[in-house]
TrEMBL record:
<feature type="region of interest" description="Disordered">
    <location>
        <begin position="40"/>
        <end position="96"/>
    </location>
</feature>
<feature type="compositionally biased region" description="Basic and acidic residues">
    <location>
        <begin position="45"/>
        <end position="55"/>
    </location>
</feature>
<feature type="compositionally biased region" description="Polar residues">
    <location>
        <begin position="56"/>
        <end position="66"/>
    </location>
</feature>
<keyword id="KW-0812">Transmembrane</keyword>
<protein>
    <submittedName>
        <fullName>Ankyrin-2</fullName>
    </submittedName>
</protein>
<keyword id="KW-1133">Transmembrane helix</keyword>
<feature type="transmembrane region" description="Helical">
    <location>
        <begin position="12"/>
        <end position="31"/>
    </location>
</feature>
<dbReference type="InterPro" id="IPR029058">
    <property type="entry name" value="AB_hydrolase_fold"/>
</dbReference>
<keyword id="KW-0472">Membrane</keyword>
Amino acid sequence: MKTTAAGGKSRLPWLVMGCLLAALACSLWMLRKHLPDAGTETLEQEPKGQEDHLAQQDQSQKSTEPTCEPEVISDCTAESQPEPPVTAPAPGERSRMPNFHGLEYQLFLPTTWRGESGQTFPVVVFLHGAGDGKFSVMNSQSLPRLLTRNQSTCFDPRHCWCLPSEYERATAKKEAPETSPDAFLDEEEDLRSPMAACDFADRFEAITVMPQGWSVGDPVGWTGERLSKVHLLTKHVLEKYHGDP
């Protein structure tokens, strides 16, 4: 049966619209009822996400820490090893260079060094000790050993040179202030030295010159004549490899 109002117009569209408005009001009421729960759930999820992020950061830091493998004992000695071959210098590597006016030497260029860039770098001159003139010996210890991505030697095949834990609390005399006539104070300090620096060659931002003053069979020391050659060599490196004077 068709229902009509006075005047003959149908009331069906108004009934449909009323039902739609009622359904919309009901939906809005239900949505408002659940909004606090949804907000609480969001707030609860944010700290969890932060915890995951912090955990990932912690794991990333742990992964960058050096892994010191057990030392392998070997009868090999650095003195018995042949000298490294002469190679072209390369960023991030220690290279034996051609003889310079009768002076053998090695050269290290920082990883960021580029010949065409014009960027300058500080220059370090490493003078070896009495028994360390042979390159195979020089490169088995101290700064020269760190200036390569592979820090292994014939007697220590580990790519990362790790010091034993007994050196963890190494101490030394404190340096005296510039106004003091003494070089050191009568007071020791903890050096807080790392047990390993596997990526030292990648982070060391200085050109390094390592001249060979003498060999084991010719322990003459750093005479004035030899130091003059080192001076000329350093000047040559400063000019050719963009050293910062």
